[in-house]
Specification:
Elements lengths: L6 H7 L8 H14 L4 E5 L7 H10 L13 H5 L1 H4 L5 E8 L17 E2 L8 H20 L3 E4 L7 H7 L4 E2 L5 E2 L7 E8 L18 H5 L17 H7 L6 H7 L2 E3 L3 H4 L26 H5 L3 H7 L4 H5 L1 H13 L7 H5 L7 H14 L2 H12 L5 H12 L12
Helix pairs in contact: 2-6, 15-17, 17-19, 18-19
Bound molecules: cobalamin and iron/sulfur cluster (SF4) (2 copies).
One iron/sulfur cluster binds next to helix 9 and helix 11.
C-alpha cells in the first residue's frame, strides 16, 4: 500500500534538526570552509576596526582613489559593517591561495610578451570565490539557523582590514594582506552573519624594517608605508582607469598589460607560499606569457573568446588593447611596429592614440612623419591628434625606466 502522506505529516516524523551555536557552529563552519578549498578561515567582530571610519575618508579626501567613484558611494557602509547591515554580529573572513607557478618578475624582461597579473591568468575569482561563499553561507545559515550575507570584492566591504582583525594575516607596507603561513597570494572573501561566533585575535605586523615592496614599485605609488595612491598604481592604471593613461606613467608600465604583481612578488613571506591548489583556480598556460603581436591583433570577438571567464574580459577589449600598445611602445622591438601600425585605423580613439604613441617610440622620426602623412593626416579625434603631435615632436625611440616620486 502506498501511504500518501501530507507534507505536514512527513515533517512531523522527520528527525528534529540540530541547531548548532557558539564553538560547535564555528568548528563546523571551519571544517566546511576547508572542504570547499579555503586555505584560511578566521572570525572577527564587525566593530573590530574602528579606525576605518577615519582612515577611509582620509584616503578618499586625498583623492587616492582616482576615478573609482564607487569607493566614495556608500563609503560609510564600507568603513563600518554594521552600517551596511545592522543585523551583523560576526564576520567570517576567508582566504583562497592563488600562488603562481613561476616568479612573475621573470617575465618583465621578456619585452615582446605581455605580463598579466597572476590573479588574472585564471578563472575570475569573483565567480569561483562567490560560488564557494554562497555554499558556505548556506551551510552556516542552515546549521546555525542564522542569517548571512556573502561578499567578495565588489561590495562596500573593506576586506583587508577585516581579514587582519580576524588574524588571517596583517596588511603589509604594500597594503595587501600577508599571511605568515601562506604569503601574500591570497584572495579574500567575507561572510557577515547574525551568529555570535567567538572572534580570533588579530595578527601582529611582521614587516619589521623590510621595505622591498615600497622600493620595487615602478611608479612610486606609495606616498608612505601602508598607504597607496591608486592613481599611480599600474593595477589601477591598466585595469580601472578608463581613458588614455597619463604619459608620465607609460614608460614605467613596461610590458604589464593587465595589473601588476611587483610589490607582491618581492615579499619575503612568500617563502611559505604554495602553488594554487584549487583546481578551478589553475593558471591558464596561454596567459602565462602571451606574445604582444598576437594580443595587438585581437578584435572584439577574438578578445572575448581569448579571455572568456577571466578577470581580463571585464575590462573590455579597447582598454586592454591600449595597455598592449603601451607595452609594444616599451618593447624596443622595431619588429612590433607593424602590429601597432595595424591599429592606426581601429574604431576606438583610445586604441588609435596608443598605437601612435607606440609608433613614436619604435619608428625613427623620418618614418613617423611619412606614416602621419599617409595614415594620420585625416585623423579627426582631438585626443589622437594630440598623440600625433606629441610623437612627432619627440626625438624618437626612448629607453624605459621608473617614474620619479
Ligand atoms: C580598490 C581596490 C584596489 C585599488 C586600490 C588598492 C588599495 N590598496 O586600496 C587598485 C585598483 C589599485 C587595486 C590593486 C590591487 N588589488 Co585590489 N582591491 C580593491 C578593493 C576593491 C578595495 C580596497 C580598499 O578598500 N581600499 C581603500 C584603502 C583606504 O584601504 P586599505 O588599502 O585597506 O588602506 C588601509 C591602509 O592605508 C591603512 N593605513 C593608513 N595609514 C596607516 C598607517 C599604519 C601605520 C598602518 C598599519 C595602516 C595604515 O588604513 C587603511 C584602511 O585599512 C579590494 C576588495 C575589497 N572590497 O576590499 C581589492 C583587493 C584589496 N585587491 C586585491 C588584489 C589581489 C589586488 C592586486 C594585487 C591586483 C593586481 N595584481 O594587479 C593589486 C595590489 C596593489 C596594492 N599594492 O594594493 C585583493 C587583495 C588580497 C589580499 N591578500 O590582500 C582584494 C582584497 C580583492 C580580493 N577580494 O581578494 N585594488
Ligand atoms: S601593484 Fe605595482 S604599481 Fe601598484 S603599488 Fe604594487 S608595485 Fe606599485
Ligand atoms: S615586502 Fe617586506 S615590507 Fe612589504 S609587505 Fe612584505 S614583509 Fe612587509
Amino acid at each position: 500500500m502506498n501511504p500518501k502522506r501530507t507534507p505536514q505529516a512527513r515533517a512531523a516524523t522527520r528527525a528534529p534538526r540540530t541547531v548548532l551555536a557558539g564553538a560547535d557552529l564555528r568548528r563546523a563552519v571551519e571544517a566546511r570552509a576547508r572542504l570547499l578549498g579555503f586555505e584560511a578561515v578566521r572570525v572577527t567582530r564587525p566593530d573590530a576596526v574602528p579606525e576605518l571610519k577615519a582612515r577611509l575618508p582620509a584616503w578618499l579626501a586625498a583623492d587616492h582613489h582616482g576615478s573609482m567613484e564607487w569607493m566614495v558611494e556608500r563609503a560609510d557602509q564600507r568603513a563600518d559593517p554594521a552600517t551596511l547591515w545592522p543585523g551583523v554580529r560576526s564576520v567570517v573572513m576567508l582566504g583562497m591561495n592563488y600562488g603562481p607557478e613561476h616568479d612573475p618578475l621573470a617575465l618583465l624582461a621578456r619585452r615582446d610578451r605581455g605580463a598579466i597579473a597572476a590573479y588574472a591568468q585564471r578563472r575570475d575569482y569573483h565567480e569561483v570565490v562567490k560560488g564557494k561563499l554562497k555554499e558556505l553561507g548556506g551551510y552556516l545559515s542552515a546549521k546555525g539557523d542564522v542569517r548571512v550575507k556573502v561578499f567578495v570584492d565588489t561590495a562596500p566591504v573593506m576586506e583587508k582590514p577585516l581579514a587582519a582583525a580576524a588574524g588571517l594575516g596583517w596588511q603589509g607596507k604594500h597594503t595587501v594582506l600577508v599571511s605568515r603561513d601562506l604569503g601574500n597570494w591570497l584572495l579574500l572573501g567575507a561572510i557577515y552573519t547574525s551568529a555570535e561566533l567567538e572572534p580570533d585575535a588579530p595578527e601582529a605586523d611582521h614587516c619589521g624594517s623590510c621595505r622591498r615592496c615600497l622600493d620595487i614599485c615602478p611608479t612610486n605609488a606609495f606616498p608612505a608605508p601602508y598607504q597607496l595612491d591608486a592613481r599611480r598604481c599600474i593595477a589601477y592604471l591598466t585595469i580601472e582607469h578608463a581613458g588614455p593613461i597619463p604619459t608620465a606613467f607609460r614608460t614605467a608600465i613596461g610590458n604589464r598589460v593587465f595589473g601588476c604583481d611587483d610589490c607582491l612578488a618581492v615579499c619575503p613571506w612568500n617563502k611559505f607560499a604554495a602553488v594554487a591548489a584549487e583546481g578551478r583556480m589553475a593558471a591558464r598556460a596561454d596567459l602565462a606569457a602571451p606574445p604582444l603581436a598576437e594580443l595587438a591583433g585581437l578584435d572584439e570577438s577574438a578578445f572575448r573568446v581569448r579571455f572568456a571567464g577571466t578577470p581580463v574580459k571585464r575590462t573590455g577589449r579597447d582598454r586592454f588593447l591600449r595597455n598592449v600598445l603601451i607595452a609594444i611602445g616599451n618593447s624596443g622591438e622595431p619588429g612590433l611596429a607593424a602590429a601597432a601600425e595595424a591599429n592606426l585605423s581601429d574604431p576606438s580613439p583610445l586604441v588609435r592614440g596608443m598605437a601612435v604613441w607606440a609608433l613614436g617610440r619604435l619608428v625613427p622620426p623620418g618614418g613617423l612623419r611619412a606614416l602621419f602623412n599617409a595614415r594620420g593626416f585625416g585623423e579627426t579625434d582631438d585626443a589622437v591628434r594630440a598623440e600625433w603631435r606629441l610623437a612627432l615632436d619627440s626625438d624618437g625611440p626612448e629607453t624605459t625606466g621608473p617614474v620619479a616620486a
